């Protein structure tokens, strides 16, 4: 089968979180393999990274970046108290990229917003799927407030237009009436600019991505359900099952019925990453 993986799914992951009362704890110098966001509640401390030492105080935040050497320590006369959270994953990285912060300027000045309740809402994920979802939701909410108070420059936001278009497609792909114009109107930027950004970020046009996502979803349904071809076609945004079958064969080299037969006879070959 053809293979096509446009990264339809990604996720964030909270790796750890906690609260440090007033103390003389220090860490480093060393590197971490995750992002670590700290919010200072009271007191003072210092962060040394990228050949610079930053002085920090209550209300400020700082981020440790993966594979970047850091050393942080409290002021001995007025030691800090802080909350922290560690995370990684594509979605979390994307959100962080929309905050005005980078390895060479990892400190965010104090904001009128008290971030303590938001840090307290984030819980390290347990083993159950619902615990993971809650953890990711709390992290997403926390970072969204940092995005609001410390937005990055416009240059850092260009990827978000393409991502918004992707997410809109992935939510609405089942609607037969969904068109490229609908996507453009939702993102609300100039059409040719969105087309260029989308192609740069995804390596495919908006209309091509819509078709690819529909076909990938159809493959999943063929593998996991016994829906008729007519019902399956309608489920992925095609009112005409004959036209759906034609599009499906062009993308996979199989008709839907042939694809389902291959899955039943050769489960190991039943990849849903189909692309050309």
UniProtKB/TrEMBL annotation:
Keywords in alphabetical order: DNA-binding, Transcription, Transcription regulation
Xref: Gene3D superfamilies: Homeodomain-like, Regulatory protein AraC
InterPro entries: AraC-bd (IPR003313), Homeodomain-like_sf (IPR009057), HTH-like (IPR037923), HTH_AraC (IPR018060), HTH_AraC-typ_CS (IPR018062), Tscrpt_reg_AraC-type_HTH (IPR020449)
Keyword Protein biosynthesis listed: no
Keyword Transcription in annotation: yes
SMART domains for this protein: HTH_ARAC
Source organism, top-level taxon: Bacteria
Residue ranges of every copy of the HTH araC/xylS-type domain listed in the record: 163-262
Pfam family, any one: HTH_18
Protein name: Arabinose operon regulatory protein
Source organism per UniProt: Paenibacillus auburnensis
Gene name in the database record: araC_9
């Amino acid at each position: 089968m053809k293979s096509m993986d446009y990264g339809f799914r990604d996720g964030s992951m909270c790796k750890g979180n906690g609260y440090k009362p007033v103390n003389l704890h220090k860490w480093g110098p060393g590197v971490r393999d995750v992002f670590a966001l700290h919010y200072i509640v009271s007191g003072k401390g210092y962060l040394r990274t990228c050949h610079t030492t930053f002085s920090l105080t209550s209300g400020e935040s700082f981020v440790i970046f993966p594979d970047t050497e850091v050393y942080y320590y409290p002021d001995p006369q007025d030691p800090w108290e802080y909350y922290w959270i560690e995370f990684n994953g594509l979605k979390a990285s994307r959100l962080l990229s929309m905050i005005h912060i980078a390895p060479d300027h990892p400190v965010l000045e104090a904001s009128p917003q008290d971030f303590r309740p938001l840090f307290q809402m984030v819980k390290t994920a347990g083993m159950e799927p619902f615990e993971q979802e809650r953890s990711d939701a709390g992290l997403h909410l926390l970072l969204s407030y940092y995005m609001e108070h410390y937005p990055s420059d416009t240059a850092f936001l260009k990827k978000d237009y393409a991502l918004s278009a992707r997410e809109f497609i992935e939510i609405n792909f089942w609607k037969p009436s969904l068109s490229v114009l609908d996507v453009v109107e939702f993102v609300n930027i100039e059409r040719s600019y969105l087309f260029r950004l989308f192609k740069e970020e995804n390596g495919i046009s908006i209309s091509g991505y819509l078709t690819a996502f529909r076909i990938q979803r159809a493959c999943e349904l063929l593998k996991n359900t016994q829906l008729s071809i007519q019902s399956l076609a309608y489920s992925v945004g095609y009112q005409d099952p004959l036209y759906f079958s034609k599009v499906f064969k062009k993308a996979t080299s199989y008709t839907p019925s042939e694809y389902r037969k291959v899955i039943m006879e050769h489960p190991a070959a039943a990849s849903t990453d189909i692309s050309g």
